[in-house]
Design brief:
By secondary structure, this protein is an alpha+beta fold. Among the domains are: 49 residues, Helicase, Ruva Protein, domain 3; 124 residues, 2-Layer Sandwich (Tetrahydropterin Synthase, Chain A), CATH 3.30.479.20. The chain contains 12 helices and 8 strands. It has a 3-stranded antiparallel beta sheet. It has a 3-stranded antiparallel beta sheet with strand order 4-5-8. Strands 6-7 form a two-stranded antiparallel sheet. Keywords: Cytoplasm, Elongation factor, Protein biosynthesis.
């Protein structure tokens, strides 16, 4: 597979390595982006690329709760200008409240929900799209329920660019919100290291065993070093093992225990994560429009 300049740029954006290093890795990986990232990591040249870093689409996330139910959604638009206007924000709240009340199974079912005057949620979204002149889409959502002796932790950052929804046993709403803020800021992937899938651990071990700085070391030393790196890797992606964002002297596990809580589950949305954004040159676009 031919390696293009666009592929090299994408790999550089994800790993911050030099152009030639990115190109060599892509050639060696025969154009496979994920394999190229792993090769660069094996050489100690790039950190783990997070899928969440590929933020592209505009829009907002939103969290709402009522009683023992809560919902988190992501609504996308083409520009952040539209995402900030009243029509979009009113739609955002309506979509979230409608989903919270009905708890649909998926996006397709959510779009078919009745809203008012015989219209569906999809009709409402289309109407706002026509008003704003931009395509607006409901990308994803999740609902959560809790018992009376549990509490939600809800937090939105930067006007909805990132939102987190977590469920805790316990009743300290302020502490729950603090942990939700930590989730939004630090982006853990799992509640604890016990929740990390075996295949994720196996892949990380494979990458670490191939690290160039381990070449020539005895197998027992190599295994011990990799074991330490795996432990660090798990701590970085597991919520309970992370240093608490509001007090780095304690872990999240220690914070929730001190507040008589346990973390049951969490969801974190960041606007546009995983969506590739089309790069445009404003000057070129203007020139095209005026016929130059």
């Amino acid at each position: 597979m031919a390696v293009t300049a666009k592929m090299v740029k994408e790999l550089r954006d994800k790993t911050s390595v030099g152009m030639m290093d990115a190109k060599k890795a892509l050639v060696e990986a025969e154009g496979d982006m994920e394999k190229a990232i792993d090769l660069l990591r094996e050489k100690g040249m790039a950190k783990a690329a997070k899928k969440g870093d590929r933020v592209a689409a505009e829009g907002m996330t939103y969290v709402t709760e009522e009683g023992n139910k809560a919902a988190i959604i992501e609504l996308n638009s083409e520009t952040d200008f539209v995402a900030g206007n009243k029509e979009f924000n009113d739609l955002l709240a309506t979509v979230a409240k409608t989903i919270l009340a009905a708890e649909p199974a998926d996006v397709e079912a959510a779009l078919a929900l009745p809203v008012e005057d015989g219209r569906t949620l999809n009709d409402l979204i289309i109407n706002v799209s026509q008003i704003t002149g931009e395509k607006i889409t409901l990308r994803r959502f999740e609902t959560a329920t809790k018992s009376d002796d549990e509490v939600f932790g809800c937090y939105s950052h930067m006007g909805g660019s990132i939102s987190a929804l977590a469920v805790f046993s316990g009743s300290d709403a302020d502490a729950a919100r603090d942990v939700a803020m930590h989730i939004a800021a630090i982006a853990p992937q799992y509640v604890s290291d016990q929740d990390v899938p075996a295949e994720v651990v196996a892949k990380e071990k494979e990458v670490q065993l191939a690290s160039e700085d381990l070449n020539g070391k005895p197998d027992n030393i190599k295994e011990k070093m990799v074991e330490g790196r795996i432990k660090k890797f798990l701590a970085e992606i597991s919520l309970l093992d992370q240093p608490f964002v509001k007090n780095g002297d304690q872990t999240v596990a220690q914070f929730v225990e001190a507040n008589n809580m346990t973390v049951k589950s969490f969801v974190r949305y960041q606007v546009g994560e995983g969506i590739e954004k089309q790069n445009t040159n404003l000057a070129d676009e203007v020139a095209k429009q005026i016929g130059q």
